[in-house]
């Protein structure tokens, strides 16, 4: 795998770690894959604090997706940059069609651990190239999650992806986590992804940076809700809150929701 693809092992480790500790997520599949792959992480990539963050972030995405799937019974679910994530197991399809999308070599690896069904398909594709959308026949409504992906795409690439999604579907809900420009500067020397060879990342400070005539910003979500911080005890709870839930954290990471602009639904 190339360096960007190898970053999938960082959240995989984090979810495996918190699942074993009984925190935030019940993710036996992450535990299984991590144990089988034995990928070597080092330095900040294997920090328990980062593992806690990865676990909480995934739980927040799961919660949002659960709610949107309840609200939009006829929507398809698309997870762009799925890596080895087991969201399909944690959330379940609930009779929705579900598509996991990632680079071909990631999907090839993923198929060793996941099996396609009538409701669940894996698509090999690059988020920067919308050709993979032709594999999705449904066009009415889509719920899209992009966890830990936007920081590898330029603003223009994100806008192009959003435009392609809006052109394909009549309605669209999107949740995406983002680096800020400050986080990009910090990443040059302090980002755990450096440990797997990634040095080039991108960020935004204004959520409207991804907005267009077709895509509208809805709201910002809390990245680290207090209820998850409270699952930790004593000094761990204090340190995690300071590292990942305070004002400094918001200078680094943001969580934004978008939808297709209804006034331009015929575009």
Name its key features.
single chain; 267 residues; alpha/beta; Rossmann fold; 7-stranded mixed sheet; 11 helices; 7 strands; disordered N terminus
Structure in words:
This protein is of the alpha/beta class. The chain has helices at residues 3-6, 9-21, 28-37, 48-71, 87-91, 104-110, 155-168, 181-190, 226-229, 234-244, 247-250, and strands at residues 76-80, 98-102, 120-124, 141-146, 171-179, 215-221, 253-260. It has a single domain, classed as Rossmann fold (3-Layer(aba) Sandwich). The protein is built from 11 helices and 7 strands. α6 links the parallel β2 and β3 (120-124). α2 crosses α3 (28-37).
Question: Which residue ranges are poorly predicted, with pLDDT under 50 across at least 5 consecutive positions?
Answer: 1-5
What is the H/E string? HHHHEHEHEEHEHEHHHE
Largest sheet: 7 strands, mixed
- Provide the β-strand percentage band: 15-25%
Strands in their spatial order, largest beta sheet: 3-2-1-4-5-7-6
Radius of gyration: 18 Å
| CATH topology name | Rossmann fold
Chain oligomer state: single chain
Total number of domains: 1
Class derived from helix and strand content: alpha/beta
- Rounded to the nearest angstrom, the distance between the terminal CA atoms is 38 Å
Count helical runs.
11
Number of strands: 7
């Amino acid at each position: 795998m190339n360096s960007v693809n190898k970053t999938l092992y960082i959240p995989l480790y984090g979810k495996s770690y918190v699942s074993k500790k009984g925190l935030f997520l019940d993710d036996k599949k992450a535990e299984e894959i991590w144990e089988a792959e034995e990928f070597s992480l080092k330095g900040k990539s294997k920090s328990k604090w980062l593992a806690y963050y990865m676990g909480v972030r995934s739980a927040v995405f799961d919660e949002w997706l659960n709610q949107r799937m309840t609200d939009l019974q006829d929507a398809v679910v698309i997870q762009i940059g799925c890596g080895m994530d087991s969201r399909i197991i944690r959330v379940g399809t609930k009779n929705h069609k579900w598509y996991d999308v990632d680079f071909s070599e990631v999907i090839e690896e993923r198929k060793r651990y996941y099996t396609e069904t009538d409701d669940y398909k894996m698509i090999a594709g690059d988020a920067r190239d919308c050709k993979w959308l032709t594999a999705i026949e449904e066009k009415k409504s889509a719920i899209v999650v992009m966890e830990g992906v936007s920081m590898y795409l330029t603003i223009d690439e994100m806008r192009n992806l959003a435009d392609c999604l809006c052109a394909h579907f009549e309605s669209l809900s999107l949740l995406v986590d983002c680096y800020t420009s400050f986080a990009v500067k910090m990443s040059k020397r302090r980002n755990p992804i450096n440990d797997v060879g990634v040095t080039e990342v991108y960020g935004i400070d204004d959520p409207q940076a991804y907005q267009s005539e077709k895509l509208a910003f809805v709201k910002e979500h809390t990245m680290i809700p207090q209820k998850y911080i409270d699952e930790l005890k004593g000094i761990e709870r204090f340190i995690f809150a300071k590292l990942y839930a305070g004002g400094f954290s918001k200078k680094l990471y943001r969580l934004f929701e978008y939808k297709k602009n209804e006034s331009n639904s015929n575009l």
